[in-house]
Amino acid sequence: MHPIVRFKNATSLIVIGVTILAGSIVMATSPEETNVSDIGNDVLATPRATVADFNGDGHPDYVLRNAGTRQTAIWYLNNNIFLSGVLGPTIATGWFLKSAADFNLDSHPDYALFNPTTDQTAIWYMSGPTFIGGAYGPTLPDGWELVETGDFNVDFFPDYVLYNAGTHQTAIWYLLNNVYVSGAFGPTLPPDWNVVGIADFDGDSHEDYLLFNSGTHQTAIWYLSGPTLIRGAYGPTISSGWILVATADFNSDGHPDYLLYNVVTRRTAIWYLNNNVYISAAFGPVLPAGWSLVGP
Ligand SMILES: [Ca+2]
Ligand SMILES: [Ca+2]
Ligand SMILES: [Ca+2]
Ligand SMILES: [Ca+2]
Description:
This protein has one helix at 10-21; strands at 50-52, 61-66, 71-78, 81-90, 96-101, 110-115, 120-127, 130-136, 144-150, 159-164, 169-176, 179-188, 193-199, 208-213, 219-225, 228-234, 243-248, 257-262, 267-274, 277-286, 291-292. By secondary structure, it is mainly beta. Strands 1, 2, 3, 4 and 21 form a five-stranded antiparallel beta sheet that branches. A four-stranded antiparallel beta sheet has the order 5-6-7-8, with no helix packed on it. Strands 9-10-11-12 form a four-stranded antiparallel beta sheet, with no helix packed on it. Strand 13 and strand 14 (208-213) form a beta hairpin. The structure holds calcium ion (CA) (4 copies). Residues 200-202, 204, 206, 208, 223 line the site of one calcium ion.
């Protein structure tokens, strides 16, 4: 059965969008400069998938994870169509793959890893699916976790998106390759909402947050200018049984799309969007037993 989109009416979209916007608090200091309360080891409860173009054909590819062996694999796609698969590196125990982005600007996506016990970050430089070398990135203040990456200051270097599960605040850490340059607070999320992806949904060259409420299955886009929230808008509500796990432009029309995953059937689906508006849906490949789009 195809995923079904359920739209709210336009009036409720606007009203609830204002409510979301009211959750915005923007501060201009680095998390490093604040006293962050110790909430113990970070909570890594939000399932997110990692998607990037590993073979340079312009089409986003899936990173699969094997929870038993901690090995990764790359599934090359043409839009929603599986082309071929290849094994990637195995993630060390205690570390979690958070994103794939090109940190050293050699055109190959690299793995961004986070260790919630030590709060260390690391970059694994890749050539296609092949591990080339690793380097530590900055260590995060306790209570903060690395959740995603995106280029928020448009210097082509990926930046960290950080999240504090205690305060629900986000922060951007600007990097040059693996080196911390500066930090800024981003907006604070409403309870039960999480950042599941980063992309420029409205085409203004500024990265935006894709938010998902796993309780209500509502989605929202928070349009940003750098780390500053400009406005929010609802996207389509995700069908029951599915979760929203990433965003990427699968059909190469310049608009980021939703990647949906059904953890029971291991089926994937793409929801094509124009900005925050649902256009159509297509199934992607079903993952083999033992593999997942989410996890370590
Ligand atoms: Ca690279
Ligand atoms: Ca940047
Ligand atoms: Ca934007
Ligand atoms: Ca698209």
